[in-house]
Amino acid sequence: MSTVVVVGSQWGDEGKGKITDYLAQKANVVVRSQGGNNAGHTITFGGEKFALRSIPSGIFNPNIKNVMANGMVINPKQMLEELAGLEARGITKYQLFVSNRAHIVLPYHQDLDGAYEQFKGDKKIGTTKRGIGPTYADKVNRIGIRIADLVDPKLFKKALEDTLPIKNKELEMLGLKTYTVDEIFNEYSEYGKKIKPFVCDTSLLLEEELEKNSKILFEGAQGVMLCIDHGTYPYVTSSSPTGASVPLNCGIAPSYINNVLGICKAYTTRVGEGPFPTELDGNLANYIRERGHEYGTVTKRPRRVGWLDCVALNYARRVSGINYLSLMLFDVLSGLDKVKICYAYELDGKKINTIPATLDELERVKPLYVEMDGWKEDITHVTSFSELPVNAQKYLRKVEELTKSEIVIFSVGPDRLQTIELKEFFK
Ligand code: IMP
After folding, report:
1. Which of 5, 70, 232, 417 is the most exposed place for a label (fewest CB within 10 A)?
2. Res 1 pLDDT > 70
3. Would you tell me which CATH number, out of the four given (1.20.120.80, 3.40.50.300, 1.10.730.10, 3.40.440.10), belongs to the domain 3-96+203-256?
């Protein structure tokens, strides 16, 4: 098993950063393939907490090659700030490779993200306002600017001269500030100089590594339910966080992708707007939110909280080719008398086992639950399956049964050491 894709299998924030960091100890290469600094991966080790945004989670280990692949959208200013922040905390020896084909996020993308949200009013997506959607939109509209342009002053100036007249018209129409070529060029060409040493054709690099049989970890951002194609559209992000998107977003053959590890919490959370069938409110939601520290890494927004939704998980398994699961934040559920898992939905009097395509239907589904006895014990020090209280063991097995997936890892706290491997994974 030389490649593994780590995929968020809910609405993001499942703890991918922790598992990527854990598996990265065994990897030679860690790759971020999509999204940008809308992601926030929290990694805790040695009593220290690091919040990564766009840099891959293998950055802490000097032996690991970290790749920011072509499918990402990179904010050069933020990326350099993130690196400077890591360096200030002693992370100075790292290997980083940035795709020359990745698109860059410029200030007007962020302005447009904010404006679209404002104009949508109560239909707003609840984006992270990092300009991610508008940057992907420009890529598809073929007016994007790529890293290869940024690091070559002549190309960068020409790209800005070609693009800004169009973007300025759009900005003007929306009543936003327009930009001059020099304004952006003078600031961003300096970032380009700093980023240049990291830039290469990362598809070529990955092929060389694959041919050497290196162990490669593809680190997903966001979650399958936020996928632009398969998620709860339009309340989604603007890229595809599925296992299937990895070959395209990295420039490698699909045949290399055969192990997809879905990361899921022992319950469900979501930030931003959009349907959430198993959502809880009141004391129960607060209990889980506080114990799970469910506040956004990027925006600090309180996350919406609900019971584990196995309809959504099963859907994520199918559209993303997940074959293993990692169950995160298991300790958060300790102390509850009863715990519930959603195994199906009811829609207009019929039982369904999949996610309907329209929001209208998804908003009308009623979750059907299995109710199980909870457990009172603190499980944060558990180091094996057999040490878990019997009811927690039953919960874990029930999730496997309902998702037709094997749980290979469970996690009982934020530290690397609180990660229990049930089956040696990524050998
Ligand atoms: P965008 O990706 O900033 O355009 O935001 C679109 C939707 O995806 C919003 O609901 C965001 O809250 C959500 N989102 C984007 N990135 C993440 C993430 O890393 N974790 C959880 N939600 C995310």
Report:
1. 417
2. no
3. 3.40.440.10
